[in-house]
């Protein structure tokens, strides 16, 4: 087999790990299984990541980057402040519901982190990164439109993300029961976005 540089092998292994754990759960993501998923030697996984913690961190970072890129790509460059914030909110929802099993993987990692200090550190960093990204987007839009926020963006961001997290958890539970909760969730998403806008504008 031809030698593959580490710079190329690393993203391949991350994708293989995500595919495997999305399909079979975090518990199935052993280095042996991930190596088999990609068709490489187990030693390749150890050489590339060193520790399981490094692998989990790479998986979480990739999952987060995919969502952030989708939202950023949908960011509007014109329109009123409220409409642009609404567009970003719906872009986030679309990014998550377009790959619900990957969100479920993040939820599984979050649950496991409650009893695993090393994994907890990774998930804490993920949470803060998401909040900083959302804070930056809200702040940028407010400055662009000359809007003075009634609540600091640093508080609005985690409030909104917590609401999205709750709606997505509900979406996953109902979806696994054989229902299609998409349409009935949209009014709830509307209410969440409207509530966030009220908090932003103090109305």
UniProtKB/TrEMBL annotation:
Domain of life: Bacteria
All residue ranges annotated as the HTH tetR-type domain in the record: 7-67
The entry's DNA-binding region: 30-49
Gene Ontology MF term list: DNA-binding transcription factor activity; transcription cis-regulatory region binding
InterPro entries listed in its UniProt record: Homeodomain-like_sf, HTH-type_TetR-like_transc_reg, HTH_TetR, Tet_transcr_reg_TetR-rel_C_sf, TetR_C_31
Keyword entries, A-Z: DNA-binding, Transcription, Transcription regulation
Keyword presence, Transcription regulation: yes
Extent of the signal sequence: none
Protein name, per record: TetR family transcriptional regulator
